[in-house]
Amino acid sequence: xxxxxxxxxxxxxxxxxxxxxxxxxxxxxxxxxxxxxxxxxxxxxxxxxxxxxxxxxxxxxxxxxxxxxxxxxxxxxxxxxxxxxxxxxxxxxxxxxxxxxxxxxxxxxxxxxxxxxxxxxxxxxxxxxxxxxxxxxxxxxxxxxxxxxxxxxxxxxxxxxxx
Length: 163
Known about the structure:
The protein is mostly beta strands. It has strands at about 20-25, 30-35, 40-50, 55-65, 70-75, 80-90, 110-115, 120-130, 135-140, 150, 155-160.
C-alpha cells in the first residue's frame, strides 16, 4: 500500500516559446480608395519582422468596387529583405483570362487583379527573409482611377508564421 504523497517541488524551467505567428482579421468598417492609382498602406494588413527571420504569410482579401477600375496589390518589406509572393485571382495582366501565377520578388512592385460585379476574393501567399527589422506591409490602390470606391472589406484576413 503506497504511503502519503510528499510536498510538491519547485516549478521547473520554462520551456521554449511556441511558434511565432500573427493573425489579423480586418475589422469593420471596410477600407476604401477613391479616384487613386497610388499604392497606399493598408491600415491593418502588416506584420513585424526582425533581421534574419523567415516568415510565411497567407492572406485572403475580399474586395469590391468598379469592375473597370479593378485593384492592384503590392507588399513592401524592410531594406535588404528577400521577398517572394503571388496570388490566385483573375489578373488584369493576362487579359481577364484566368488566374495569375506570377511571383513578385521586388518590394513595392504590384500586380493588378480583376474585381467582379460583386465581392471578389484574392488569395495571396508569400515568404520573406528579413534583411532588417521592420514591417511586411500590404499596399493597394485602384488599377484604373475611378470615382467608385474600391474596398478591401472586413473579414479579409492575414495569417503568418515564423519558420
